[in-house]
Design brief:
Layout lengths: L1 E6 L3 E10 L3 H9 L1 H4 L6 E3 L7 E4 L7 E9 L3 E6 L2 E10 L2 E11 L5 H21 L10 H17 L1
Antiparallel strand pairs: 1-2, 2-8, 3-4, 4-5, 5-6, 6-7, 7-8
Helix pairs in contact: 3-4
Organism: Staphylococcus equorum
Family: Belongs to the AHA1 family.
Protein name: SRPBCC domain-containing protein
Length: 161
């Protein structure tokens, strides 16, 4: 997976690119339907699948967080608010593969930027695994600590430029 980080005066961006052995329609279904998304991110659901439609992040012991769909173009892109940030998935066909690009923006006020970036990297790998093998990754097998450290070091390098 290709990773890139950048920042501006307001916050930090993460861009992830991964090639998946699957077609855009199948991958888009995993990104844009409750049935699909819950296979790799069980806490998410869609209420209304359209621009300005609602999605929810289910939290144990707390009220669900409401999110708004910001982009939706069948088999091409879906984006939504993510707390005080935004995320967007873009799909592009390649020869016998699909390139999935994930773009996330989090303002500096977001409380756990590194943890969130790491979580989305895990989810991107999990989407690839589901499409190619039929099974999501097990979070217990993922080395979140070393990923957190690597991301933190990379973002610090970006800050020092």
């Amino acid at each position: 997976m290709e990773t890139q980080y950048s920042k501006d005066g307001q916050g930090v961006y993460q861009t992830l690119k991964i090639d998946i052995d699957g077609d855009k329609e199948t991958i888009f279904n995993y990104l844009s339907t409750t049935e699909g998304i819950q296979q790799w991110f069980p806490q998410l659901s869609f209420e209304k699948r359209e621009v300005n439609g609602k999605m929810y992040f289910h939290l144990e012991e707390e009220d669900d967080l409401e999110m708004t769909i910001t982009h939706l173009e069948e088999t091409k892109t879906i984006g939504f608010t993510w707390d005080i940030g935004t995320v967007k998935f873009e799909l592009n066909s390649k020869v016998q593969q699909t390139e999935l690009t994930f773009i996330e923006y989090l303002p500096f006020e977001f409380p756990h930027i590194i943890l969130d970036f790491t979580g989305w990297q895990f989810h991107m790998e999990s989407i690839k695994s589901i499409v190619e093998t039929g099974k999501p990754l097990n979070s217990q097998d993922y080395d979140f600590d070393s990923k957190n450290e690597a991301i933190e070091a990379q973002i610090k390098l970006e800050n020092d430029k």
